[in-house]
Write a structure and sequence with these properties.
By secondary structure, the protein is mostly helical. It has helices spanning about 5-10, 15-25, 40-50, 60-75. The protein has four helices and no strands. It is globular, with a radius of gyration of 13 Å.
């Protein structure tokens, strides 16, 4: 789900002064070997992004925060996103 708060969190994570001192590297939008964006969207973050790159990917933190927010608000456990279902909405 794309919300203003989620977008702001994603973009704030790119601010080097916020997180680079903690991780020793900037939080960037990851690309695969062919230069195509990867690590965007819930399915890519959960299923396709290398676990080595996840700590340096802004969407990883955004979807982690959203998952926990909805878990707390709804008092429900949610499964991982499903390809072709949970990524069908481009604004999601």
């Amino acid at each position: 789900m794309n919300t203003l708060g989620a977008t702001l969190l994603h973009d704030y994570l790119h601010f080097d002064g916020l997180v680079q001192s903690v991780f020793g590297a900037p939080i960037i939008d990851q690309n695969d070997a062919e230069g195509e964006p990867t690590g965007y969207g819930s399915v890519q973050v959960y299923d396709e992004l290398s676990k080595d790159l996840a700590p340096f990917n802004a969407d990883s933190y955004m979807y982690y925060a959203l998952h926990n927010l909805w878990h707390v608000l709804c008092q429900k456990d949610f499964a991982a996103p499903r390809a072709g279902i949970d990524d069908a909405d481009l604004d999601c």
